[in-house]
Design brief:
It is a single chain. A six-stranded mixed sheet has the order 2-1-6-5-4-3. With 143 residues, the protein is an alpha+beta fold. It has three helices and six strands; from the N terminus they run H-H-E-E-H-E-E-E-E. The longest helix is centred in the first third of the chain and has 39 residues.
Amino acid sequence: MKSILLFAFLAGFATNGSCQTDDSTAIIQVLEKESATWRSGDLTAHAACWQTTPYSTILIMTAGKTFAVPVDKIIHPLPGTAGQGGTSKNSNYHMSIHGTTALVTHNETSTSAKGSVNHTYEVRMLEKISGQWKLTGQIIQVL
């Protein structure tokens, strides 16, 4: 009897961990897709990564400046803003997932089509909406 209870107890933890892993994987997929589609100019796929909410925000911090970008400008960018090519590599993911909300930090190294390299530290806010993880905001620190 004790063996059955112990197995049931451990199975409960395994299931919970599996859900967290599934969410973590899905969140990374959304973040990687968002980065790639911005560079490729696939605006439909890029917009699908986002969900506008009344509290959505995007802040960008550079040397000596911090400015807010309307979320709509990221979801529906002006012509010539997205699709400039290049690549990005996200790394060093850290996540806090609570039910249908997640806070994620990571580093991004972006290489432009002309070869210039930029590094950022990013904080991303996501929500699980209709079973899909969507970005609702972000803070980008240009390093």
